[in-house]
Amino acid sequence: MLLADRHRGTHRATGPGGLRRAGRLRELLVTGVVDSFGMALGWTFVVLVGTARGGLGEAALYNAAMLVGTVLSAPAAGWMSSRLNGRALLRTAAGVELPMRFLVLFGVISGLPAWLVAVFILVMHTAAWAGYAGLRAEVTAVDASPRTMTRFVICIVGVEAAGTALAALLPTGPDGQPAGWLLRAIFVVFLGTLLPVMLVARRARIIPAGSVFPRSPARGRHAKPGWRLPMPRLMLAGGGVMLIAAGPSLLAVPVTEELYGSSWVAGAAVAFCAGTLLADSAVGWIGRLGLPAVLRWSLWGLGMLAGWILAPLYAPFVLLAQFAAGLATTAFEGDMDARVAAEAQPGTLTRDLAYSASFRALGGAVAVRALPMMIAAPAIGMAASASALVLGVLSLIIWAGLTTAPHLFRRFAH
């Protein structure tokens, strides 16, 4: 896909539909915030009902399905971006996601088999993350600076934490479900907050990748980007950090529920939201150190884990753990996406951003599925300690390699 931004320059340059760049950024940001709030509220409700119904195992199945759907969103976004402009891509993704949101919520409430609900979740998140990649590409088309991308991620992650906290505070019955008007309100919010995506697509700047690549003389059609993995070292490094470090924070809702009850789930979500607000400053401070990307990302991974070492000992430590995880996760996602956007080739931005999210999700999917199989919730601190040790050792190896044999490590680390 091409960044069809013919009006680069100041924030006073006009964009599609006569909007100025600053106005378009606000429009995209508000759309992302509204959509993410509804998704977070509904998704947390689904996980909590699943936990009440089938324990940590069912919640982990739903989380794994969510993350696998995120993985599949990368090839889906690549396929759509080579054929559809930004308007059609965003509306197609939202058109698939909307009925899936209904089926997921209806399925978990009505007691459908967990595996079937997981299938709906997988399709829902495949469409959701393909659309999110398109939305991030639209943001980059207006302003490609790392600071803008990091702030966009901060707002999205922060409002997701707020939606999670609200869902955890909703009054429920013995089966973990609200009733009456409250249940209907959850349906309305979960489904209705997706509608702004369809509206904001009217002024999309992205055009199909095939329209900017030269025609192939041999085949007589547009040559399109291949299906090779883009930036394999960066993608594998990002996925590896999530595999090692993200398990405890991704399972924070069911783990906190089992350890301390739903009231602490809300507190942990608020703490996570507060942590995201410092991510922009943290990225700037770490950036001034001039560290290679892999070492920066290792530091973010250690931040995701640090608080969870003590979380099972005393309930308030959960708040500290999620505060640190919110800061580190948001900084890591913004850092990685900015790096991917900076290195993307013309016509591949949406696909590359989708792969960036999918490799993080792949690492997270393995972590959330494997962690409950190896340990129970009270042992989460031991798992966090072991993961921090592994990540620390790997960081030391990379640092030593950069110091003693830079010709071997520099290409991988930077």
UniProtKB/TrEMBL annotation:
Q: Which residues cross the membrane?
A: 28-48, 60-81, 181-201, 234-252, 264-287, 299-325, 379-402
Coiled coil regions in record:
none
Per its UniProt entry, which superkingdom is the organism in? Bacteria
List keywords of the entry alphabetically.
Membrane, Transmembrane, Transmembrane helix
What is the name of this protein? Major Facilitator Superfamily protein
Q: Which organism is it from?
A: Paractinoplanes atraurantiacus
